Amino acid sequence: MAAITLAELANKLGAELRGDGTVEIHSIASMGKAVSGQITFLSDSKYRQQLIECQADAVMLREADVEFFQGNMLVVKDPYLCYALVAQLLDTTPVAATDIAPSAYVDSTATLGCNVAIGHNAVIEAGVQLGDNVQIGAGCFIGKNAIIGDNTKLWANVTIYHDVVLGSQCLVQSSTVIGADGFGYANDKGEWVKIPQLGSVCIGDRVEIGACTTIDRGALEDTIIADNVIIDNQMQIAHNVQIGYGTAMAGGTIVAGSTTIGKYCIIGGASVLNGHIKIADGVTITGMGMVMRSIEDKGMYSSGIPLQPNREWRRTATRVHRIDEMNKRLKAVEKQLAAKGE
Questions:
Q1: Catalytic residues
Q2: Pairing of strands 73-75, 16-18
Q3: Which of 283, 290, 253 has the alpha carbon at shortest distance from 270?
Q4: Does 1 score more than 80 pLDDT?
Q5: Quick one: 74 and 188 in the same domain?
Q6: Residue 98: partners with Cβ closer than 8 Å, 6 or more residues away
Q7: What gap in Å lies between CA 184 and CA 190, rounded to an integer?
Q8: Residue 342 clears pLDDT 80, i.e. is over it
């Protein structure tokens, strides 16, 4: 979209317009960087002082912040949500592919919906089903009998293995791999014997997956990701993991096999979740969390020691190594006091 008037924006957002509705907005920016022709937003009242020098043509803000700004404004309940909606309206991101490139390979048994676009050097194998308006970026590989729902977009070099099901309105960033083998082996007197991974991956609707993430297929049953899940970059989702509706997972997180994560969970970046555990609905795990056991109750959980100067960290580490010794000494003292009746 080239430009949109404030009146049109107010109508689309359900916002209250205060000011000149004929002003045209062509992009959105942060308050400190916004200039004429742009709109910005104030989602946290502690930044009210920036409104004084704000050069944007309009600001999205709450009723409580109106008195601190003299220019054009859209009064809304949730400025950050409206920022997301306006960014969608003004999005200039190109399509992943246009039409079907001559260099793309599409097997004759594949089924393509209306308006499908497939980029250069992409491979669509036998039995694949692509829904309406699907975009397959350059260099993608879609394995046999995979199913991709309507309006889903794959950026360049995504690999979708055989039998994977990817829902509608999904977005998969470059170099992600979905459906590779899970880590399954038996041991025969020191020799590793591979266990073929016979399950698949089933991903719901409106799921977004970041770049260079891997989601393994199940050993017997499927790896399952529910609707409305967002998964960041460079993550490992192992075989037979299940992730519930509306969960968000930040970059660098590793989830070991057969772990179940509930609905509306938030997993901070660089966290590690042990295998064969369950995380309840509504759990928040802060960044670099190490989760070794199941979490049964909703709430916020943290682990790890925050960064310290090296000298302090060395003292802390030394004390940690002596905890067992200190515990034995404490119990001995308690026993002596008990014997004396104190």
A1: 239
A2: antiparallel
A3: 253
A4: no
A5: no
A6: 117
A7: 15
A8: no
